[in-house]
Amino acid sequence: MDINFVIEKFILVTILFAISLVIAMYSTYAERKVAAFLQDRLGPDRAGPFGILQPLADGVKMFMKEEIVPATSNKWLFMVGPGLAMLCACIGTAVIPWGQDLTIAGKTVPLQVTDINVGVLYIFGVVSLGVYGVMIGGWASNNKYSLLSAIRAASQNISYEVAMGLSIIALLLVTNSLSLKEIVAQQHSWHWNVLYQPLGFIIFMVCSFAETNRAPFDLPECETELIGGYHTEYSSMKLGFYLFAEYINMFVSSTVMVTLYFGGYNYPGMDWVAAHVAPNAAALIGTGIFFIKIFMFIFFFMWVRWTIPRFRYDQLMNLGWKGLIPLAIVNIIITGIWIALRQF
């Protein structure tokens, strides 16, 4: 194996891991600032200018707090749960194409950890595994509220993964590819998939809220019924891992939506910049625009949380099974008919 290839991928993985952690950390700050703005408050403003150091203060607090492990819990699984949740949240970025290939010292450097030809299936597999961290933590706590929360999370994820998968089938009919890099390449300039699959995008986005346990689908963390939810018994950085995993999942969900439906790193005029300025400049600008799109979706996640009240559990299930799944099936049929008519 080429040692330069290993070093290159190690550097890229390290950078992506650091970016994921920093975005998750400052998403907690942005969440509180957005909530304060919508409620005509100030939000964090003590730690540093405009409270910009508040996430660092929160991180230090998490590390310094006493770690309590319930005497009746399953000790080993109690530790595995948050670690698994964090791991599954982080590895989803491995197949995301963050930009066009760079040319450094005559060598082509792809801004993607790996381009597997089933990248969409990889994302779905990672999303499906994430619920195990919640289930293990809820069960290992030996707390009835944590267990009920874990059961809710599992049933919610299973229900909405069906509709999410069906919405992707319609997209795959249009793109004829499971490779995320190829899907992004097909959306060159303004040819974004959201223009061809608006209903599929709406279904996928709603399911993303449910998959990440974000309001109004945050039933597993319903404080009025379940105290703190599946992480009720957790403290110190184990609790921090669960909270960080939620924000990383929000970041990854936003990234996947931008990749599949909003052109990824593509932007109008990319070819002109590559031809008249420099190919590397066009690639780096594309990566910057990619992150701007992602931050817009993260803001939308936060906006919805502080605007729409939480659903009841029966409403959650009815929407998934009786609303989104039939809509997704109808979308597949309409897409199939549209593609068939285009061939004549």
TrEMBL record:
* Pfam families per the UniProt record, alphabetical: NADHdh
Q: Does the keyword rRNA-binding apply?
A: no
PROSITE patterns given in the database record: COMPLEX1_ND1_1 (PS00667), COMPLEX1_ND1_2 (PS00668)
One example of the protein's molecular function in GO is: NADH dehydrogenase (quinone) (non-electrogenic) activity
Entry's EC annotation: 7.1.1.-
What is the topology of this protein in the membrane according to its UniProt annotation? Multi-pass membrane protein
Q: Which domain of life is it from?
A: Bacteria
Q: Where are the transmembrane segments?
A: 6-26, 76-99, 119-140, 160-178, 190-210, 239-262, 282-304, 324-341
Q: What class of enzyme is it?
A: translocase
Q: Which UniProt keywords apply?
A: Cell membrane, Membrane, NAD, Oxidoreductase, Quinone, Translocase, Transmembrane, Transmembrane helix, Ubiquinone
Enumerate the subcellular locations listed in this protein's record, separating them with semicolons.
Cell membrane; Membrane
The primary site where this protein sits is membrane
Name the NCBIfam families on file: PRK06076.1-2 (NF004741)
Briefly state the protein's biological role.
NDH-1 shuttles electrons from NADH, via FMN and iron-sulfur (Fe-S) centers, to quinones in the respiratory chain. The immediate electron acceptor for the enzyme in this species is believed to be ubiquinone. Couples the redox reaction to proton translocation (for every two electrons transferred, four hydrogen ions are translocated across the cytoplasmic membrane), and thus conserves the redox energy in a proton gradient. This subunit may bind ubiquinone.
As for family, the record states: Belongs to the complex I subunit 1 family.
Q: What is this protein called?
A: NADH-quinone oxidoreductase subunit H
**Record gene name:** nuoH
